[in-house]
Amino acid sequence: MRVRSGGYSGSGVERQGGECWGIDPSGCFFVLSSGLGSEAERASRGVCETVLHALLPHRAQIETMAADARPDSRQMLMRSLCGAMIRAEKSIMEYGVPEDGLKLMASCDLVCLVHGTAYIAHVGDCRVYLLRGDTGRQLTIDHTVYERMRAQGRAEEECSAVVYKSRVVRALGMGGGTEIDSLQVDLRHGDRLVMCSSGVHRYIHNATHLAQLYRTMEPQRVSEYLVQYALDRDSATSASVICVEISDPGMRGSLLETDSRITALEQICFFRDLSYQEMLQVMPITFERSFDGGEEIIHEGDDGEELYILVDGRCEVSSGGVRIARLEPGCSFGELSLVDRQPRSATVVALEACRVLVIRATDFERLTLSGALAVKLLWNVAHELSERIRKSSETIRLQGAKLLENGIC
Fold it and tell me: Final residue of a domain: which of 193, 223, 248?
């Protein structure tokens, strides 16, 4: 990949420091941290230094993992990024408790750019935006009281009325073993990534507004501009920005781009009604597989371990040697394997060269262990199973009524 980047920090007259950022000269790693508490600058600096120190010696291995098509390699890559942030958390907790008794804590965003894809580790209230042309998207979800209430299904009026709605509920150093969001997004030529602290994004209405502010400036200049834009509106804040422009994304390890993967997953019952940011958290567990014409994708009676979504090609479904269906692109099969791992009830064979999107049950289970995303996924699973039970009950009722009508029972 070829990128241009720049970063800048500034503080208003009523607040000094508290934030830190770091850029890998090779254009692979970018980290931005915002400290919390009386020794915020110490915390944020410790986080940035520890994260970069942990990752820079292993850049070649991370590039190798990103190039490997096997799903376990990508899981290892994401664990490496999250592991570097956990190491940073341990380092600031070892500083001890300041005299005022407040813990050293920090928000942190870490971006790894390799082979046309951005791998992101996120915790706290810093943000990462993706700008594409005149618009864009916010990629991360703030770990604040406001977003937690929204995830709980509270009304917007109630969430906005809370006095401490911007208070951080998840950060490095808050309790040890902090849960870190991991997500990935594929990049195109001309894409721009903006990493910024809350001192900046509180004055950004949305990603389109940010794109309008960015205009055609080069990354270093726009970093300085955005920081000054925030300080002009609040002299009591600190503000930090990293801007990255993708000159050449290089070759991705996958053919199916992020937005196409999301479109495919939205058709699956377990992933309905997830936000774009939540879908990005699902992306690291998806991978692609190809099959030749005549090759079996799943075999009746085998243990079910994977969900498949047909992207290209056509497949045939049979049970007991009897052909029962033909699958076209967009069709899925094996959804229940993500929750019950029961033997396959049918055989699916590729009629021609096929490409499928795959999710393994073990990876899906990890997503359901904790956090707001886990709640949504489990709710969708429960809803789908209840619907299937209801339909089965109705089928049994109708069959029973028909038997009674014919005087069979």
Answer: 248
Residues 142 and 180: their CA atoms lie apart, in Å, by 12
Name residues whose C-beta falls within 8 Å of residue 372's C-beta, 6 or more positions apart in sequence.
141, 147, 148, 151, 278
Nearest to 179 by CA among 49, 77, 85, 51: 85
Regarding whether 282 and 239 lie in a shared domain, the answer is no
Q: Find the CATH number of the domain harbouring 158.
A: 3.60.40.10
User: 216, 248, 280: which is the final residue of a domain?
Assistant: 248
Is 374 strand, coil or helix? Answer: helix
Rama region for 351: left / alpha / beta (φ>0; ψ in -120 to 50; rest): alpha
Is 288 in contact with 254 (CB distance < 8 Å)?
A: yes
- Look at the chain and report how many structural domains it folds into: 2
State the pairing for strand pair 354-360/306-312.
Answer: antiparallel
Tell whether 260 and 199 lie within a shared domain.
Answer: no
CATH number at residue 325: 2.60.120.10
Q: Give the separation between CA 215 and CA 372, rounded to whole angstroms.
A: 34
- Residue ranges of E strands in 221-274: 238-248
Q: Give the pLDDT confidence of 192-207 residue by residue, as tens digits.
A: 999 999 999 999 999 9
| 347-389 pLDDT tens trace | 999 999 999 999 999 999 888 887 788 888 888 888 877 777 7
Residues 313 and 249: their CA atoms lie apart, in Å, by: 28
* Lookup: tokens for 117: 């894809």
Domain residues for the domain of 405 are 255-409
Rounded-to-integer distance, Cα 386 and Cα 93, Å: 45
pTM for the full model? 0.90
**Pair (156, 285) in one structural domain:** no
Task: Give the mean pLDDT of the chain.
Answer: 89
